Structure formats: C-alpha cells, structure tokens
Amino acid sequence: MSDRTRGRPPRISQDQIVAAARRVATRDLTMQAVADALGVSRKALHYYVGDREGLLTLVVLDQFERELDRVELPVDDDWRKVLRAYAVAFRDGLIQVGTATDFTRLRGLSASAALALADRVLDALLAAGLDPEAARCGLTAASNIAQSAAHTVVAQTASGVHRHRAQTTAALKNEPQNTYPALRRVLATAEPKRHDADIQFTFELNSVIAGLERILAARPAVSE
C-alpha cells in the first residue's frame, strides 16, 4: 500500500460539503450520496464530518444561517421592536430547520447571520441604557423563549394545541371529577381554537420586555 493510499484523504472544505449536500434531495441525504456528489470516497467524507449526524448538523446550520440572513431588524431606536423582531426571526429560523434536527445542536451556534442579529440587538439594548450584563441577560432570555416556542410549534397537534395539553386533558378524563380543580379550571377556560405556541411566545416575550423596562425605569437619574 502506498503512502498516498494510507495518507490524508483529499482536502474537502465545509463549503464544498454543504454545496454538495444542497444538490441532494433531503430524502436521499446520505453520506454516500454526498460523497458521490463531491466525487470522493465515503471514507474521505467521514474524515471531515465524522458521521451522518455530523453531516446533518452542518447542513442544518447552513440552512439556519440562510434563513436568518434574510432578516432585517428595525433600524429605529426602539429597542423593544428590535428585541421582538429578533425573537420572532430566531423562532422562525428554528422552526424551518426543526424537523431536520434536534434543537440542542443549534445551541451556541456561531453562524455569522445569527451573530450579526445578536450584535444588532445588544447595540439597541445598550443604547437604551441597559448595562452590558442586563443586555446580555435580555438577549439570552429572548433566545431561550424563541427556542422554547419553536419546540412548542413542532410539538403542536394539527389543531394548534400543544401535545402536552392534549395529553393532560386526556389523562384528567380518567381521574375523579373532584381532583385537580385548578388544573381543570385552567384547561376548561382555554380557547382551543387559538394556537398555544403563539400565545405562550407572546406572553413570555412581553414579560421579558416588561422586566427590562423596569430595570431601565430604576436607573439613577443622570444629572445634566
């Protein structure tokens, strides 16, 4: 066996791998299919992405970045609009790729489009008067809410009801009517035609914005 055979596989960049994966239909996305599209062996592709899970992660992050790259946040000085637009964009981007991957793979992502949006939000929060720590916490809270909302959308039933609510309602039917009164009251007054994910997303985001407003209102007055 020659040194060339035993040596390092042909150099393949992540951009080349992603470009090749885009040419393969999602249902046919396998290591072999992408290797064929690249004109290399499957072993060579394994060297750079590890396995199919690694390939999927690379493809999903590329799709996520392309989703966010189309987003334009408000350019005015209203930090509330900027934070809200960021949360919506982040949620929608996650929903677009949610069926292809576990959301946990996107935690801590460094996609340039996501970084650009985060920087724009932090700039708006800092300009509003928040200190760096409060601005960081506000951005993190909005990101967490977006991820939770995306999870909820994926977990909804066809009618827009979260599966957890549907399962809870079904479980209560097997319990005596005089048990769990608070839980029954809440579920009984819920509006089944409205979408749980949108309701929860709006509530949580409004709560974060209200909290940041209180922090700003509590700032010591700046003398002229």
From TrEMBL:
Name of the protein in its database record:
TetR/AcrR family transcriptional regulator C-terminal domain-containing protein
Give the Tetracycline repressor TetR C-terminal domain ranges.
76-214
InterPro entries assigned: Homeodomain-like_sf (IPR009057), HTH-type_TetR-like_transc_reg (IPR050109), Repressor_TetR_C (IPR004111), Tet_transcr_reg_TetR (IPR003012), Tet_transcr_reg_TetR-rel_C_sf (IPR036271)
For this UniProt record, the keywords arranged alphabetically read as follows: DNA-binding, Repressor, Transcription, Transcription regulation
Name the SUPFAM superfamilies on file. Answer: Homeodomain-like, Tetracyclin repressor-like, C-terminal domain
Q: Transcription: present as a keyword of the record?
A: yes
Gene3D superfamilies (alphabetical): Tetracycline Repressor, domain 2
